[in-house]
């Protein structure tokens, strides 16, 4: 089968939605937009040159991180397999939507700052407990209280030899 893998830089334009499927799997989906800009040499101004919209679906290990990390308006980089989804609307109009089954999603650090919290640095391996612990991790530039409640100055996290679960 032919797989079209791509990396798209853009902005989250809908709130990510997590769904629990009947077979026990989880998926998080959201829409993103990628704007193409070019310099108009006659005016010296940057002008928009079209927008690519696509639906991004995140599965398996990616679900927990995306669910607690991304929000509408966040600048992101998404990498995964592109697919075209064809369907017919209630009015009978045929539509085509571009979808990405993401294998990696992260913040676009050219447009924002982010603090990385590794799953192995959190006190529990339980997904729901991990998510609530991630929600307690503060983001900021001053001294912060970590998950264990210890006040510290933010620094580069140490590498853990503990493997990340599959």
Kindly summarize this structure in a few lines.
The protein is mainly beta.
Task: Describe what you observe in this structure.
Helix content is 11%, strand content 45%. It is mainly beta and 166 residues long. The C terminus is likely disordered. The chain starts with a strand and ends in a 14-residue tail after the last strand. The longest helix is centred in the C-terminal third of the chain and has 10 residues. It contains two helices and eight strands; from the N terminus they run E-E-E-E-H-E-E-H-E-E. A hairpin with a 5-residue loop joins strand 2 and strand 3. The strands form two sheets. The protein has a five-stranded mixed β-barrel. Strands 7-8 form a two-stranded antiparallel sheet.
Low-confidence stretches: 136-166
State the separation between the terminal residues, measured CA to CA: 25 Å
* Number of H/I helices: 2
Q: Roughly how much helix do the residues carry, as a percent range? A: 10-25%
If you average the pLDDT, what whole number results?
Answer: 79
**Beta-strand content:** over 45%
Shape: flat
The profile of the biggest β sheet is: 5 strands, mixed, barrel
